[in-house]
Design a protein that fits this description.
Chain A is α/β, with parallel strands linked by helices and 242 residues long. Chain A is built from nine helices and ten strands. Chain B has eight helices and no strands. Classes of the chains: A alpha/beta (242), B mainly alpha (229). Chain B: It is found in: Cell membrane.
Chain lengths: 242, 229
């Protein structure tokens, strides 16, 4: 079943035409990695999918919610599509456990015990059970990103969007975040991952999209993209990063 | 004809100081409440709210405080003939109008100083505007607005001396009266100055205490301490 439909998506920032007609369908339980050079529009594409950027033209449908329809309650869509940011964006004034509990308490309005039990379970799952009472400022980057993943999972999203989740991390701690993401993929989460981690894309993705200059230039299985790219721009990009 | 400045003269000055404290406490609290509302409106997604607060803030900031005091004191009884305002009430209104505009700018600046990623993370979790403001943005903005806010309230205490023109016997006016009685402006106004200083310095101590008590947790810029071995 297709859960994300993106059709002829255009996004302009003033005169700057960032997305020039992106088409993309993503099925349930699929893991899609989006790769491409800086400024190719991959982050903007991802941010459009939960309404962090408005759409200039075209349409996006997430789980039957039309994002280009002003009557759609964007907050409902966002509860179904969790987002993980490059710079974690944890709430520094709240303890780790309260970061994870905030949305269940204030958006889903579940009771406190239930929210807490859920948050403890999620933090254990990302390997941070012992950090529950810590403030984000005392954690390492890798730990912060794992908390951010737990926070996004707390709303039981059907889709997870990752915006360069390991780009701000030291190389030696990238692995701990990728492991959590791999587990998530193995559990059948639908995932869209903008990444520079080619190893991860190759190993975990069901499909890889290569974006350049606001368009999806090439897509295919990791094997097709990494071993035998057909497009000259894909070949050029991969020859530089691999 | 004149007598020397003695301890008895401290009584009217102390009364004046007490009135200044009451005046500043009331207009300070009201100014903070209205300033918060205006400052939040200034950053709100509603265009009308932004417009109204922007117009108000620009107008008040473009008018000398003395003109605001005169306008409220002489203008309100003419505009609303039935309304009887005593000097104290009109001074509170004038200072509140003035304070609200400046507090609003401090609030706006503090809200805008909270990194945009915080707001985006709250959006991405599905928090609505008010929940985002209450649980994510304001707790962080509060810490940022305390130092300039304390500075402004101290300024307000000093500016409150201008309401002396309405005849309200606050600290400065009391100083004037005592000077006329004793003919000793040096001792009198040194005392007045000392009293203003004590009020202002107490406020800045309170502000520092507040920062210390809340500062441990609420510091978005604070880097993690290196782990000690």
């Amino acid at each position: 079943m297709t859960v994300i439909f993106v059709e002829n998506l255009n996004k302009k920032f003033g005169p700057n035409h960032v997305l020039k007609g992106v088409d993309c369908h993503i099925r349930e339980r699929e893991v899609v990695c989006v790769i491409g050079p800086s400024g190719s529009g991959k982050s903007t594409f991802l941010r459009c999918m939960n309404g962090l950027e408005s759409i200039t033209s075209g349409s996006i449908v997430i789980n039957k919610h039309r994002l280009d329809d002003s009557k759609t309650n964007i907050n409902l869509v966002r509860q179904e599509a969790g987002m993980v940011f490059q710079h974690f964006n944890l709430f520094p004034h709240l303890k780790v456990i309260d970061n994870v509990m905030l949305a269940p308490l204030k958006v889903a309005k579940v009771n406190k015990d239930e929210a807490r039990a859920k948050a403890e379970m999620l933090l254990a799952k990302v390997g941070l059970a012992e950090k529950m009472e810590a403030f984000p400022g005392s954690l390492s980057g890798g730990q912060m990103q794992r908390v951010a993943i737990a926070r996004a999972l707390a709303m039981d999203p059907k889709i997870m969007l990752f915006d360069e989740p390991t780009s701000a991390l030291d190389p030696e701690i990238v692995g701990e975040v990728l492991t959590v993401m791999k587990d998530l993929a193995n559990e059948g989460m639908t995932m869209v991952v903008v990444t520079h981690e080619m190893g991860f894309a190759r190993e975990v993705a069901d499909r890889v999209l290569f974006m350049d200059q606001g368009l999806i230039v090439e897509e295919g299985s990791p094997d097709e993209i990494f071993s035998s790219p057909r497009n000259a721009r894909t070949q050029g990009f991969l020859s530089k990063v691999l | 004809m004149f007598r020397a400045f003695d301890w008895q003269d401290l009584i009217p000055l102390a009364k004046g100081a007490w009135l200044t404290i009451q005046l500043c406490a009331m207009s300070g609290i009201l100014g903070i409440i209205f300033g918060l509302i205006l400052g939040i409106a200034r950053t709100s997604p509603s265009r009308i709210a932004r417009w109204i607060s922007t117009i108000y803030i620009s107008c008040v900031r473009g008018i000398p405080i003395l003109v605001i005091i005169f306008f409220i004191f002489f203008g309100i009884p003419l505009l609303f003939p039935g309304l009887e305002l005593d000097k104290f009430a009109s001074a509170v209104i004038a200072l509140t109008c003035f304070a609200a505009a400046y507090v609003a700018e401090i609030v706006r600046g503090s809200i805008e100083a909270v990194p945009r990623g915080q707001s985006e993370a709250a959006d991405a979790l599905g928090l609505n505007y008010w929940a985002k403001l209450r649980y994510v943005v304001m707790p962080q903005a509060r810490k940022i607005m305390v130092p300039p806010g304390v500075g402004f309230i101290i300024g307000l205490v000093k500016d409150s001396s201008l309401v002396t023109v309405t005849g309200l016997v606050e600290l400065t006016h009391a100083g004037n009266i005592v000077t006329n009685l004793t003919g000793d402006p040096i001792m009198t106004f040194l005392t007045v100055a000392a009293m203003y200083f004590v009020i202002c310095y107490s406020i800045s101590l309170l502000g520092r205490l507040y920062e210390k008590r809340t500062g441990i947790q609420v510091d978005p810029l604070k880097l993690p301490e290196p782990a000690s071995v």
